[in-house]
């Protein structure tokens, strides 16, 4: 659903139960597998206005923005791995991970990479957002929940370090053992290095121009007991880590993608979908998404990225078998088939689907 938004506004005057304890008030968990729950606000349509209280260069090309409630009230709670939607303008919505070591409710921080070849969202933020700017944002959503563990291996590439920064704070508070491998093009493009340097040899910086690329085959060769791997970064890094950890126990690796996985749509077929709450059954043609059909029929549905990466359009499946094409669900979540992202996912084999919409 495209929602009208004021976007950027210049200021006129200047153990699993442990896991559940971390869920912010006013939010809920999705899914039935406690290892793979996602945290979403009870009202995913809710928007709020925040004020930029600090802006600094976290590295060459990355600006760090600190956000707070304009009236000084606490912001909604969040958990490490969470992101917010930032409404750049009426058309453009971008997702940014919250990246503070402290799980602060007074202020949030995001890191925005300037992507000159992107679609203009990051450029608009870099060019127009200053201290005092008001932004319209969503409540935090978390598709990348840090599952409690004795030990973590964190792997970050480039701007993918942003959710990992928050996770390190949580791992420290929980007394977990952890290490981070953080790669980037060169040291001057790697954000938040000062903060991360404080953790000494737990953190290994790997600037590609001087140190080359990490050999993940070697790095992840030995399976470590009671250890989870959390990884965020560009596609080649994610692919290398997925391949290099394929011999680890199921559920060891958790990733977050900024860009969608490539999908072959050449053999897509039409299928019927029943929107149970709306009492409608509609046909989804081969060249349209379920989201497009729902929106054109006036079915209330929320969406943002439209490419299966942000998690906003998550919908419960009551019957049928989804053909999952998102970049969010783990293999076991896909297999369970009780939820899907309707901006990209379809029906397997063209069978009818029944959705809670
Ligand atoms: S709108 Fe982002 S996952 Fe569907």
UniProtKB/TrEMBL annotation:
Disordered: annotated span: 1-43
Top-level taxon of origin: Bacteria
Cofactor(s) recorded in Swiss-Prot or TrEMBL: FAD
All copies of domain FAD-binding FR-type, residue ranges: 45-147
Polar residues compositional bias, start-end: 1-15
Keyword Iron: yes
Pfam families according to UniProt: Fer2 (PF00111), NAD_binding_1 (PF00175)
Entries under InterPro entries matching the protein: 2Fe-2S_ferredoxin-like_sf, 2Fe-2S_ferredoxin-type, 2Fe2S_fd_BS, Beta-grasp_dom_sf, FAD-bd_FR_type, FNR_nucleotide-bd, MRET, OxRdtase_FAD/NAD-bd
Name of the protein: Ferredoxin-NADP reductase
Lineage, uppermost ranks: Bacteria, Bacillati, Actinomycetota, Actinomycetes, Micrococcales
């Amino acid at each position: 659903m495209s929602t009208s938004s004021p976007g950027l506004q210049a200021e006129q005057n200047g153990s699993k139960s442990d896991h559940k304890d971390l869920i912010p008030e006013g939010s809920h968990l999705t899914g039935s597998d406690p290892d793979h729950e996602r945290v979403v606000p009870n009202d995913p349509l809710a928007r709020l206005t925040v004020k930029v209280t600090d802006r600094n260069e976290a590295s060459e090309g990355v600006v760090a923005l600190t956000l707070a409630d304009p009236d000084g009230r606490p912001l909604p709670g969040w958990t490490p791995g969470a992101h917010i939607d930032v409404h750049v303008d009426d058309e453009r919505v971008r997702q940014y991970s919250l990246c503070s070591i402290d799980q602060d409710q007074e202020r949030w921080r995001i890191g925005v990479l300037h992507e000159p070849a992107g679609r203009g969202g990051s450029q608009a933020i870099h060019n127009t957002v200053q201290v005092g700017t008001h932004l319209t944002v969503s409540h935090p959503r978390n598709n990348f929940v840090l599952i409690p563990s004795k030990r973590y291996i964190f792997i970050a590439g480039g701007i993918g370090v942003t959710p990992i920064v928050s996770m390190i704070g949580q791992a420290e508070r929980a007394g977990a053992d952890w290490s981070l491998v953080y790669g980037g093009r060169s040291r001057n493009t790697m954000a938040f290095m000062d903060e991360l340097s404080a953790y000494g040899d737990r953190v290994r910086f790997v600037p590609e121009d001087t140190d080359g690329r990490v050999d993940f085959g070697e790095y992840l060769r030995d399976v470590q007991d009671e250890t989870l791997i959390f990884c965020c970064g560009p596609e080649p890094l994610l692919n290398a880590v997925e391949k290099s950890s394929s011999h680890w126990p199921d559920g060891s690796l958790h990733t977050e993608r900024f860009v969608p996985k490539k999908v072959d749509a050449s053999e897509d077929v039409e299928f019927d979908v029943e929107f149970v709450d709306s009492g409608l059954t509609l046909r989804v043609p081969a060249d349209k998404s379920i989201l497009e059909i729902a929106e054109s029929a006036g079915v209330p549905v929320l969406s943002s990225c439209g490419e299966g990466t942000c998690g906003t359009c998550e919908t419960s499946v009551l019957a049928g078998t989804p053909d999952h094409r998102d970049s969010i669900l783990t293999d076991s979540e896909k297999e369970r088939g009780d939820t899907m992202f309707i901006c990209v996912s379809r029906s397997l084999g063209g069978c009818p689907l029944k959705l809670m919409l």
